[in-house]
Amino acid sequence: MSSRNLRLLPKVRDSWSYLYVDRCRIDREQNAIAIHDERGRVPVPCASLGLLLLGPGTSITHAAVAALADNGCMVGWVGEGGVRFYAYGQGETRSSARLQRQARVWADPELRLATVLRMYRMRFPEGTLPPDCTLRQLRGYEGLRVREAYRRASEETGVPWRGRQYLPGDRAATNAVNRALSTANHALYGICYTAIVSAGYSPGLGFIHTGNMMSFVFDIADLYKTEVTIPIAFRVAAEGEHDIESRTRAACRDAFYRSRLLERIVPDLGRVLEDDIQQVTRLELEDELGQVKAPVWLWDPEEGEIPGGVNYGEEDGRG
Predict the structure, then answer these.
(1) Is residue 29 located within the same domain as residue 140?
(2) Res 201 pLDDT > 50
(3) What whole-number distance in Å separates Cα of residue 176 and Cα of residue 240?
(4) CA 149, CA 169: separation in Å to the nearest integer?
(5) What is the pLDDT of residues 52-69, one digit of tens each?
(6) 280 lies in a domain?
(7) CA 69 to chain centre
(8) What is the predicted pLDDT for the residue at 255?
(9) Whether the predicted pLDDT of 267 surpasses 50
(10) 271 vs 274: CA distance, rounded Å
(11) Same domain, yes or no, for 183 and 36?
(12) CA 40 to CA 27: how far, in whole Å?
């Protein structure tokens, strides 16, 4: 189990708690789960979790997964500290409301452009950019901002910087700081991927980036690179080339934890799409037991969304 002994990551909202564990065994205990390691057993109520992240050395029973699914808790399989994201299971976000909003904004050229402009502006302190910047101008400002981040990190650490060099599949062909940058960025992509899918959005529907199943992950990760991964990569490279990938992953893990990065990403997703993360959508209705459910709706070009699970043949007198 993690040395932090099941420390909860900060809550994104009251019903969205995140828990990371590793090197443990998880089984079902009544309608909850219990986590076991060499130090003993820790019971965890599924209803309080929105996302359970399973790190290296974790095993989980079929019954435990069923209990988590029954309680609307999403399960993600990740690298150590959550720095890589490998797979996930369905969570409480059975409502497609956020995915539909993302798709609607993505498909509308005016809304998409507004979102792209907003995402670029989020990278700069408020009031530092002219209010009437074009997209081309914003790209230029962004290039200068990133170049300055590299220059500043190089100056502070003494690590020479000769530009970004990345050869897929041949990391040995690049220098130490570029290998550290690639590793740190992959770690950042993992935690952004986790936040995106747990909040009910698609990682493939990007706005600035396009054509890749990770496009939206790249969009969101770019909000944090100059703050997080660039300084980490230069600092690790300044300490030497030995085990640089593993040391970079460990440094990212610790930095993500200290900065509460996961807590920040989901609200930032709402800012990007002008989507109120706190709002209960119309697809999230309460049944007679007071439990949230996400029913299936039918699309109608005139009426919009109408309830599913209804025999409309009987309703029209034809059943």
Answers:
(1) no
(2) yes
(3) 8
(4) 26
(5) 889 999 999 999 998 888
(6) no
(7) 20
(8) 92
(9) yes
(10) 5
(11) no
(12) 13
Instruction: Collapse the DSSP code of 275 into the 3-class scheme (helix H, G, I; strand E, B; otherwise coil) and give the result.
Output: coil
Residue 208 structural domain: 97-273
198 and 50 Cβ atoms separated by less than 8 Å? yes
Is 49 found in the same domain as 190? no
- 227 Rama sector, left if φ>0, alpha if ψ -120 to 50, beta otherwise: alpha
C-alpha to C-alpha distance for 118 and 21, rounded to whole angstroms: 35
Considering the domain boundaries, does residue 195 fall inside one? yes
Q: 169: which residues sit within 8 A by CB, 6+ positions away?
A: none
CA-to-CA separations, 240 to 158, 179, 236, 243, in angstroms, rounded: 12, 12, 7, 9
Q: Are residues 217 and 308 in the same domain?
A: no
- In the chain, the number of structural domains is 3
Q: Is residue 251 part of a domain?
A: yes
CA distances in angstroms from 243 to 64, 145, 167, 248, 269, listed in the order given: 36, 30, 19, 9, 34
CA angle 145, 150, 155 (to 5 degrees): 125
Is the C-alpha dihedral spanning 205, 206, 210, 214 positive or negative? negative
**Structure-token match 């030497």, residue found:** 240
Query: Would you give the DSSP letter of residue 80?
Result: G
By percentage, how much of the chain surpasses pLDDT 90?
44
Residue 117, in any domain of the structure: yes
Find out whether 244 and 237 touch, Cβ atoms under 8 Å: yes
- Mean pLDDT, the chain, integer: 82
Residue 203 identity: P
Give residue 173's pLDDT.
58
Provide the pLDDT for residue 115: 95
Q: Decide if 259 contacts 10 (C-beta within 8 A).
A: no
CATH of the domain at 199: 1.20.120.920
